[in-house]
Amino acid sequence: MGPAGLLRPVPVTPLPRAVPAPVSKGAGRSPAGRPYDPGRALAGREVRGGSGEAVGAATGPRPVRRRWRLRWGRLAATAVAAYLLAGLVLQQVALWQARQELRALDRQLQELRGQQAELRAAEQRVDDPAYVDETARQRLGLVKPGETVIQLVDEPGAAGSPAAQSPGSPGAPAGR
């Protein structure tokens, strides 16, 4: 073994080329936004080694169960939308009830303002000395000093008096 025997050519086996990761929006996702699946990326292609020779055909893609994820997302979005819609409907019902109550309170306020106006007018009448004098004469039978009062009294047998009506007549008071 001479110097020529030390340097003997050794066959080199090339390493398979690594598949470049796709450029994605998020880590582990494809450009379309789906989860990255290397088997799907190589589907239908031959994998070639470093020297260009075919190493073997890639296996077909394994089925990815993303349907359920999409359906759960839609279900969650529908549930949130239904919740928000129910909240909106309940707010509208509460608003309608508040408006009804406001209308009723406005009507009550108008009635009370009318009563207040009547009471203020009555207060002004009571402050008038002529009204006080008239009320004292009619209701209480009071007279001023020096006046003479003449009262007319019905006779006991007159047509309009209660004593003239027979005990069995319809207008007579029931006595017991």
UniProtKB/TrEMBL annotation:
Transmembrane stretches, start-end: 75-96
Coiled coil stretches, renumbered: 95-125
Residue ranges with Low complexity bias: 1-10, 156-176
Pfam family, one: DivIC
Keyword vocabulary terms for this entry: Coiled coil, Membrane, Transmembrane, Transmembrane helix
Location of the region described as Disordered in the Swiss-Prot/TrEMBL record: 1-60, 154-176
Keyword set includes Membrane: yes
Protein known as: Septum formation initiator
Keyword check for Transmembrane: yes
Lineage: Bacteria, Bacillati, Bacillota, Clostridia, Eubacteriales
Organism: Thermaerobacter marianensis (strain ATCC 700841 / DSM 12885 / JCM 10246 / 7p75a)
